[in-house]
Design brief:
By secondary structure, this protein is an alpha+beta fold. It has one domain (about 15-70): Ribosomal protein L28/L24 (Ribosomal Protein L24e, Chain: T), CATH 2.30.170.40. It is about 25% helix and about 35% strand. The protein is built from two helices and four strands. The strands form two sheets. It has a two-stranded antiparallel ribbon. The protein has a two-stranded antiparallel sheet with strand order 3-4. A hairpin with a 5-residue loop joins β1 and β2 (about 25-30). The mean pLDDT is about 90.
Length: about 80
């Protein structure tokens, strides 16, 4: 399973680690993923999603139905 948000498809970014002597080596900056069970009242069922912390905050603010509708996602 990829380290990716189920709803927003956010993935890791590639950048450089820079030491004190300015040597650069590649590194990956991973998203802050959380495994969360969410109840969908319209369908009367629970789904398990891997969400970023930002997507979880948006879900708490807007609600699951509105968030899915705005992004055109079928669960």
């Amino acid at each position: 399973m990829a380290r990716q948000c189920s709803l927003t498809n956010v993935k890791g970014l590639v950048g450089n680690s820079v030491s004190h002597s300015q040597r650069k080596t590649k590194r990956v900056q991973q998203p802050n993923l959380i495994k969360k069970r969410i109840f969908i009242p319209e369908e009367n069922r629970t789904v398990t999603l891997r969400l970023t912390a930002r997507a979880l905050r948006t879900l708490n603010k807007k609600g699951i139905h509105q968030f899915l509708k705005e992004n055109g996602i079928k669960v």
